[in-house]
């Protein structure tokens, strides 16, 4: 029933580097931000469908495993689904190929009208134009008692944080200073005071910080 | 010979909370930012001159000990010395009473003209109106081969970082999200790439991150 958010950020709080384009949809330096995550065994299996058994199995991978556990529905923004990069392509089905790593209902917040898209592995994208609160109510219905994840991007994440709707926030802080892009935490005055905070270091140098209420 | 910087920042990178006034010179929420440091045995002894032997002796205190080791001269801004709060008081001698915890030469960057101030414990404040580079050359002369510390505040720290003058940066990141005030890292594009980065967790929850080149 909890609402969860997981993001990769830099030491200077950047969750979404600048320099995004259709060719480079995640922005410059995105690779530096997510290197630890892409290196995990779980990312390779779940997202890349790499059956070789390779990848890291330490602290970073433990968080990657948890990322996929207990989620009944996800909410993401239009940009994360790819509608900003490909707004005029009615056949766009997301970045993830024919086996999107969700396996369940995903609400995409957009003002564009799109018919739902279903995949054989259970992933079903549904396009809605609502407030964060309304999207969350719909996601809880779809999740059937399991947790709801706010998938991103950072603008969507910030709107749910600002509305006080997120119960557990996990940020994987890469020890890099990007100096450009959209920051996660701005203007959330004394945001932590309603949460218990714990931290853990990975061998990769990444600092995993979890805020739970 | 190294140039060192130590700062306390929040998870959202704030080094100097807003809300500063003569009555509250460090700004709102400053106490939350430095609670771990003020709790250390070393801070109590060196800054508060508390001879009771109390205070924490863990990771936070180890960094507090290192903070005072090997420094031959310090550079600080006018605000940190107190000239913004008390610009018209020619007798202002800093916030630290008659035993300032420096014990050596301190350059205060200011456009105000002030005569040097000397204390019995060896602390000597010298007021200069120069560029970061010129101040650093003067500080190296005064340090006699020992390290130079950039004391702060955050504006001074950022000007030395932007000029590429700092060899070792230690930030004690408190797991709090202030959401107001002046951030340390903004606009330092890919700043970390010239440094090796290491991190350590304290029992207090503080994350000590050190960048060394």
UniProtKB/TrEMBL annotation, chains A, B:
Domain Bacterial bifunctional deaminase-reductase C-terminal: 3-188
Name assigned to this protein: Dihydrofolate reductase family protein
Organism field: Microbacterium rhizosphaerae
Lineage of origin: Bacteria, Bacillati, Actinomycetota, Actinomycetes, Micrococcales
